[in-house]
């Protein structure tokens, strides 16, 4: 469904991605692991052009985009196929939970308001926040705010949801509620690419693990292979530090 080919990205003279290839099938939960600074977030942001890669190709179903000459219509098609969940939620603080979810539907996708509200209510119910639709972000816990952000992501019915360290800004007691919503989405067959340090999530929910270091993929495979029988020294070192 989604393929990244030979993605390169540098910030000034700091080469952050040095030729990354990833394939994501429909229904996959791909977890990207790796030490801090290895390029995981940048890679995720390059998928939906939050960051523009310097070189490479993105194939999304029948859309084949060469990043160097991607047109704005191609970029907007890719953006419409994806939703992004940020580390710091990125909610509008002056909008209620419901309005945060309807905003993108009404403004970017031109869904009529009444229909947008109906879709948003379903999405909020899915993340267990039906009783919070009129709350502003400041009245919600971090875990609830992130669940609103997840509702916003599922409301646009994307082909893939990109999660950038979705629990790393949360107090430990609030990570569970977010991870359990993500697990439920995975069970429903929603395709996800997740950057996380939550090893239990990676082990239990991912069907494919990608281990990155220094802007390249060192090793990838099913979780049982990567966690129990890693082949590469750098993977072994990383896992021994984190597990
Ligand atoms: P990871 O997610 O694995 O921690 P990142 O993709 O966040 O790695 O960062 C990889 C490198 O890219 C880091 O050295 C970081 O400082 C640099 N970097 C990331 N974003 C920017 C940016 N917008 N401008 C300059 N450097 C950046």
Mean pLDDT: 96
In total, the number of domains comes to 1
Apparent shape:
globular
Count of DSSP-assigned helices: 9
Spell the H/E element sequence: EEEHEEHEHHHEHEHEEHH
Tell me about the largest β-sheet: 6 strands, mixed
C-alpha-based Rg, rounded: 18 Å
Name the CATH class: Alpha Beta
DSSP, total strands: 10
How far apart are the first and last residues' alpha carbons, in Å? Answer: 32 Å
| CATH H-level superfamily title | P-loop containing nucleotide triphosphate hydrolases
Spans with pLDDT under 50 lasting ≥5 residues? none
Structural class: alpha/beta
Helix content: 25-40%
The CATH topology turns out to be: Rossmann fold
Beta-strand residue fraction: 25-35%
GO molecular function: ABC-type amino acid transporter activity; ATP binding; ATP hydrolysis activity
Domain ABC transporter: 2-239
Membrane topology: Peripheral membrane protein
Protein name: ATP-binding cassette domain-containing protein
């Amino acid at each position: 469904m989604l393929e990244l080919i030979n993605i390169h990205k540098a910030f000034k003279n700091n080469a952050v991605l040095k030729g990354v290839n990833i394939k994501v099938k429909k229904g996959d939960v791909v977890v990207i692991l790796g030490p801090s600074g290895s390029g995981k977030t940048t890679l995720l942001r390059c998928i939906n052009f939050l960051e523009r890669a310097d070189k490479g190709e993105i194939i999304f179903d029948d859309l084949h985009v060469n990043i160097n000459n991607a047109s704005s219509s191609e970029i907007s098609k890719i953006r419409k196929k994806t939703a992004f969940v940020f580390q710091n939620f990125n909610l509008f603080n002056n909008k209620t939970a419901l309005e945060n979810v309807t905003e993108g539907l009404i403004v970017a996708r031109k869904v009529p308001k009444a229909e947008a509200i109906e879709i948003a209510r379903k999405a909020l119910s899915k993340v267990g926040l039906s009783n919070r639709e009129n709350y502003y972000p400041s009245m919600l816990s971090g875990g609830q705010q992130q669940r609103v952000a997840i509702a916003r992501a599922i409301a646009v019915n994307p082909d893939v949801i990109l999660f950038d360290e979705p629990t790393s800004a949360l107090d430990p007691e609030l990570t569970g509620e977010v991870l359990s919503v993500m697990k439920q989405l995975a069970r429903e067959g929603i395709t996800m690419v997740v950057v996380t340090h939550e090893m239990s999530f990676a082990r239990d929910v991912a069907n494919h693990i990608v281990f990155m270091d220094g802007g390249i993929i060192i090793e990838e495979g099913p979780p049982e292979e990567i966690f129990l029988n890693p082949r590469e020294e750098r993977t072994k070192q990383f896992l021994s530090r984190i597990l």
